[in-house]
Design brief:
Elements lengths: L1 H22 L6 H28 L3 H7 L2
Helix pairs in contact: 1-2
């Protein structure tokens, strides 16, 4: 589960950098990067909380043992 979050964070950061370089013909613009970084962080936080809620509902063998014992 942690690997999914790490890969998502890396992908969002790569797209934040890549889109700045693509839009500015290879020049790095700090203002554009800041906006992309903020939006990417918001997207990551949304996904993190969404996945966290789903993981809380999953019944693991340990949870099943605690419930039925």
């Amino acid at each position: 589960m942690i690997m999914r979050r790490i890969l998502t964070a890396i992908a969002l950061l790569a797209f934040a950098i890549g889109s700045v370089l693509y839009r500015n013909d290879g020049a790095f613009d700090l203002a554009d990067f800041g906006v992309n970084l903020i939006l990417g962080s918001m997207g990551f936080l949304f996904l993190h909380h969404r996945w966290k809620r789903k993981e809380a509902r999953v019944v693991t063998p340990q949870k099943a043992r605690d419930i039925f014992s």
